[in-house]
Every structure is written in C-alpha cells, then in structure tokens.
Amino acid sequence: MLFLTFLLQGCSQSPANSERAETQLNPETQAANIKPISNELRPWNSANYRGLEVGKSTDKDTLLVLGKPISIIDTPLNNTAKGFYYGGADSLIVRIDRKSNIISWIETNPKNIPKADIIKEFGNNYMLIVYGHDPCFIEGKSSPPFVSSIEKTINTTNTQSVVMEYRDLGLSIRFRGENEKFMYDNEVYQINYFSDKWPIGTTSSLCDQPQKGLSFIACGCGCCGGAKPMKQCIYRSKGDDIMNLVEDDKKWSGSDCNTVGCSNGTKYVYCD
User: End of a domain among 143, 165, 193?
Assistant: First the structure.
C-alpha cells in the first residue's frame, strides 16, 4: 500500500481535488464491495502527478520535477508525441506533445496492485467502461477508442477492453487478462493519467459520422491473412449508409461460417 500511495500521491495532493481525495483516502468511510454508482459517462478532469498537471505542465516542468529521463522514446499516434522514459518500479513514461511541449498523458505499469487497493485509495466513485473496436476508420489516421457501453455488459467472459476510470481525477486503470478473457478483479497492470485537453474515448462510432474517406472492411466469416480487400465506393448522395453494411457483416457468425472459408474482404469507402 505504501507503493500505491507513492504512485498515486500526485492526484491526492492536487489542490483542486484535496477535499474530495481526503474523503476517499479514509478507508472507514468506504466499503470495498460497493458497486460503481454511475450509469452516465462523465467528463474528464486533468490528473496531477507529483505536482505535474497533465495537459498544462511542460517538458521543462517534467525535467525540473522528475529529473533527466533514462531515455527519450518514440511513441505511436502518428508521431505526435515523444516519451520521457524514467523506468523504475512502475516503468514511468511521460508523454509529451511534440507541437506544444505539454504533457499529453502519463503512463505507469505498477506490479502487485489489486483492484481492491485502488478502491481503498480513491473510493467507489469510478466507472467501468467497455471500449470496443470501432469497425469504421479513415485510412491513414488512427481511430480513437470507442466507448461501446458502460458497466451493464461487464462479465468474466467479455473479451473487449474494460477500463476502470476515475474521470474526476483523470485516472484510467487497466487490469491483466486471463486466457484472453477479461477478469476485472485481477491485479492492475497499467495506470494512465489524462487531461480534459486530451481525453480518452469517444461516445460515438466513426460509422455515425459519414464523411469522405470513411471506410469499413467487410470480412463475412473472416478475411484471409495478408489479403488485400477489394475497394468499393459508396455514396451518401445515393442514400448509402455504411452502418447498414456493418450490421449486415455482423450476421455472418456461428454455424453460418462452419463451411465457409476466409475471404479477401470488401473495403467500402465513402467517395463523396
């Protein structure tokens, strides 16, 4: 618990959250078995990590507070950020936006921290969010994580990504899976610190936002590995709806696929 307190102390020491954190840190006021209380998606607040405010503090602030990193590493997201790697027991990485030099998010990978300890530290004012795969994309651009549901679909056989979020504190917590089946009572493997400037997750699918270049690959019972799907234009002006194609593709499952092999797939693209 001492390590957990040190790891998360930046959030509890944030002036904006000091009164709330004091209440949550008192284990006598919390019951560890209370279920999440929220049924609505809340907005993000900015996290505070050891005095560094995500979305506001800069790379220079990071160097003053944490010192020189072990190394500077590349990070995904189309090379829009760089990572200050500090390592340590929690494998600390501070992601810096290349354009503004502001901290975009902070990532830690602690060990041997069960979910119950997180709840004892910050209480029950969290949400369990199911992030699903967004079937629609714009070629050449990364798609944001898609919030497919909140709490109600969570069970021990869910293979989607389920995340525990304290959005008022800017915290996102992930758990280790088991045999590719999600077990959200397992130990924590990643804690992310976000800001209201760069929040994670979108409440609507890209499929619901028709625009030129929006694409979807229909595979039926499965696309063959390495196969290049055939491109087919669809047109909003003609009443085409990419979401209808997505729903039709979902119908290919179970017994219908027992005797059907893989396909090259078809990539549907809005061309107007």
Answer: 193
33 and 82 inside one domain: yes
87 and 147 co-located in one domain: yes
> What digits encode the pLDDT tens for the residues 134-153?
788 887 776 666 666 555 44
Retrieve residue 11's tokens: 């959030």
Lowest-confidence segment of 10-24, 120-134, 151-165, 230-244 by average pLDDT: 10-24
- Does 131 reside within a domain? yes
Higher pLDDT, 219 or 53: 53
Kind of pairing between the strands at 161-166 and 171-175: antiparallel
Whether residue 183 sits in one domain with residue 68: yes
Residue partners of 225: CB distance under 8 A and separation at least 6: 262
Q: Which residue has the higher pLDDT, 109 or 182?
A: 109
Q: Give CA–CA dist 231/80, Å, rounded.
A: 29
CA distance 114 to 138: 38
Q: Are 56 and 179 in contact (CB under 8 A)?
A: no
Residue 184 lies in a domain: yes
Q: Which residues contact 25 (CB under 8 A, 6 or more apart)?
A: 12, 121, 122
Same domain, 23 and 110: yes
Q: Say if 201 falls within a structural domain.
A: no
101, 84 contact by CB (below 8 A): no
Question: Residue 115 — pLDDT band, cuts 50, 70, 90?
Answer: confident
Tell me which residue range forms the domain holding 240: 210-270
Separation between Cα atoms, residue 150 and residue 103, nearest integer Å: 28
The answer to whether residues 9 and 125 touch, using CB atoms and an 8 Å cutoff, is no
